[in-house]
UniProtKB/TrEMBL annotation:
Keywords: Amino-acid biosynthesis, Aromatic amino acid biosynthesis, Decarboxylase, Lyase, Tryptophan biosynthesis
Indole-3-glycerol phosphate synthase domain span: 18-273
EC number annotated for this UniProt entry: 4.1.1.48
HAMAP family: IGPS_B (MF_00134_B)
Upper taxonomic lineage: Bacteria, Pseudomonadati, Pseudomonadota, Alphaproteobacteria, Acetobacterales
InterPro entries: Aldolase_TIM, Indole-3-glycerol_P_synth, Indole-3-glycerol_P_synth_dom, Indole-3-GlycerolPSynthase_CS, RibuloseP-bd_barrel
CDD domains, per database record: IGPS
Domain of life: Bacteria
Protein name: Indole-3-glycerol phosphate synthase
Family of this protein: Belongs to the TrpC family.
UniProt catalytic activity: 1-(2-carboxyphenylamino)-1-deoxy-D-ribulose 5-phosphate + H(+) = (1S,2R)-1-C-(indol-3-yl)glycerol 3-phosphate + CO2 + H2O
Length: 277
């Protein structure tokens, strides 16, 4: 693999909310990569503990006829504000594992989600589940950083990246034996995501312009995902009925965050979704 470039090219035209987040993210990465050079963060990534197999875990859940729940750990969001306080990532990870979740997703973006790398480290150390770093990935430096902090999978948001950027991030993740979740919001993005090698195709039901969720997005796009890929319905899934609705169109894997984070008994709420089918 060729050495990743250090040019932070601006993304294609994106909705206002995402554009604002990405502008801040580019500045953040400029500062962080200046403080920790690429050579050093790559060294940390390549000497980190062996990654857990995120893709196989979800494939096994589907093969077993189970719900592949990616249970999310996040303190806040742009649409929901502060979601959970007190916020204890390690305890939440233990609760999700006890409920039968397949994987975890942990927010590490600070400005908009009050996330932190330490949240991911604490959650991963508290259980044996594979962990997705949920953040806005715009540069190769971040992929190495994700592995260095212990992430087993990264998120690639097709709306935020050109095809070349997405392919570059995926190549680096694969070189580190990490999984890649390619997230789409419409047919055009799905077509682009299918040009990547990853089997994991996330269909986000949240409209990036309005921040509203609509499960009809998954109902439209999931049936278009080829059989050799694993569709994952994201956002707006709140109860067993929603889980069954997603499964009916072919998404037996789901990513659920805010609705679980707002529950007083996270274990019971997650178990209810896992046992929905």
């Amino acid at each position: 693999m060729n050495a990743p470039h250090l040019i932070l090219s601006e993304p294609q035209t994106v909705p206002d909310t995402l554009a604002r987040i990405l502008a801040d993210k580019y500045e953040e990465v400029r500062a962080r990569s200046a403080a920790t050079p690429l050579s050093e963060i790559e060294r940390q990534a390549r000497t980190a503990d062996r990654p857990r197999d995120f893709v196989t875990a979800l494939c096994q859940a589907v093969a077993d006829g189970r719900v592949g729940l990616i249970a999310e750990i996040k303190r806040a969001s742009p649409s929901g504000g502060l979601i959970r306080d007190p916020f204890e990532p390690a305890t939440l990870a233990e609760d999700y594992a006890r409920a039968g979740a397949t994987c975890l997703s942990v927010l590490t973006d600070a400005p908009y989600f009050q996330g932190h790398a330490e949240h991911l480290k604490a959650a991963r150390a508290a259980c044996t589940l594979p962990v997705l770093r949920k953040d806005f990935m715009v540069h190769p430096w971040q992929v190495f950083e994700a592995r260095a902090m212990g992430a087993d999978c990264i998120l690639i948001i097709m709306a935020a990246l050109s095809d070349q950027q997405a392919e570059e991030l995926e190549d680096i993740a694969r070189s580190l034996d990490m999984g890649v979740l390619a997230e789409v919001h419409d047919r055009a993005e799905l077509e682009r995501a299918l040009g990547l090698q990853t089997r994991l195709i996330g269909v986000n039901n949240r409209n990036l312009k309005t921040l509203q969720t609509d499960l009809a997005t998954s109902e439209e796009l999931v049936p278009l995902v080829p059989a050799d890929r694993i569709p994952i319905a994201e956002s707006g899934i709140r109860n067993p009925s929603d889980v069954r609705r997603m499964a009916d169109v072919g998404a037996r894997c789901i990513l659920v965050g805010e609705s679980l984070m707002r529950q007083p008994d996270v274990t019971a709420a997650a178990a209810e979704l896992v046992q929905a089918l």
